[in-house]
Amino acid sequence: MQNKIVFYAPGLKRYETSEFKQLTPENFLPISVTGTYCALDCDHCKRQLLRFMRPATTPGKLLETCREAVKRGTRGVLISGGCDLRGSVPLEDFFPALSYIKNRLGLKVFVHTGLVGDVQARELKKASVDAVLIDIIGSDETIKGVYHLEAGVAHYQSALKFLTQYQVPIMPHIVLGLHYGELRGEETALDLVSQYRLKALVIVILTPLLGTPMEAVRPPSCKEVGDFFKKARGRLPTTPIILGCARPMGEYKQEVDRLAIDAGLDGIAFPSEGAVSYARERGLEVVFMESCCGLELPSPCL
To answer: What pLDDT score was predicted for residue 302?
Structure first.
């Protein structure tokens, strides 16, 4: 049985509730190697998420940004960016810089890659990155209709295969409701990731953003979300499962956080008001971490 839960507050945004106040917002830094550019211009994002990342569009600028971050006490970085038309974040020129940031600057390095092939997986291994974050989509319709990507589920399976082949730690993300609020392919994605050894599974929920084609979309119902949490826990009983940063706010978030606790998930990023006391009422040991969920992961108890 689960006896501990970790609540995370990474420095992606300012965060404070009556139960958990973020004190070191510089602890974790998200960086985009493409600035605000993305060739795919996906329907759920329309490049908006890139605006909240520090731009560093050359290897030299990335190194400069990370050196400055170390001086401010940063412990880890997320290297991300928009995708090219292949569905990949264009990292080819950045691999030596990633190695330097990890091995010389001593930062934890998490990389949002998009799709990867043999060469990228091998270079990520050589750079000793701490984890690769990759959205796994289980519906060809969603890949084409939402991501505007000429690819299929098989391409995501290949990416996981290459990363596993080179023993790169994997933290796949499954986005519930990515297909305009519908659950379409999420169980297939869960089946897919369950075939591999994972550092953790991160589950997030479609958050409709203003100015996107999905701004008026209703996210999946709390019941659908809760049922998926239970299925994920059942399929991956010994893998840390984290409720990630992205999910709608308000009462929806409060209910979803309670469902995550009830389902035995191991961590929650940016917990809603009341989530901490709810966990304690259920006899869980509560741990607070001002980091990305990949920096410090719990070990599920059976």
So the answer is: 36
Enter the tokens of residue 151.
């690819």
3-state SS assignment for residue 211: coil
The first and second tokens of residue 191, run together, are 């089946």
Instruction: Show Cβ contacts of residue 11 under 8 Å, excluding neighbours closer than 6 positions.
Output: 22, 24, 25, 26, 27, 28, 29, 74, 290
pLDDT in the model for residue 17: 63
248-277 tens-digit pLDDT: 999 999 999 999 999 999 999 989 999 999
The per-residue pLDDT for 25 is 62
Q: Which amino acid, one-letter code, is at 57?
A: T
Between the CA of residue 126 and those of 32, 41, 130, 236, what are the distances in Å? 21, 30, 11, 28
| Predicted local distance difference test score (pLDDT) of residue 295 | 56
Residue the block writes with tokens 């050589």: 126
CA separation for the pair 32, 130 (Å, rounded): 17
Residue 211 and residue 48 in contact, taking contact as beta carbons nearer than 8 Å: yes
> CA-CA distance, 269 to 293, in Å (whole number)?
7
Closest to 161 in 3D by CA, of 122, 123, 196: 196
Look up the pTM and report it: 0.91
* pLDDT attached to residue 301: 40
CB 292 within 8 A of CB 274: no
Residue 219 CB partners (closer than 8 Å, separation 6+): 176, 177, 181, 205, 206, 207, 208, 247, 248, 252
Amino acid at the residue 300: P
Q: Give the model's pLDDT for residue 300.
A: 47
Cβ-based neighbours of 288, under 8 Å, separated by 6 or more = 6, 7, 9, 20
- Spatial contact of 44 and 219, defined as CB atoms under 8 Å apart: no
What tokens were used for 36? 């605000």
pLDDT below 50 — which residues of the chain? 300-302
C-alpha atoms less than 13 angstroms from C-alpha of 180 in its C-beta half-sphere = 7
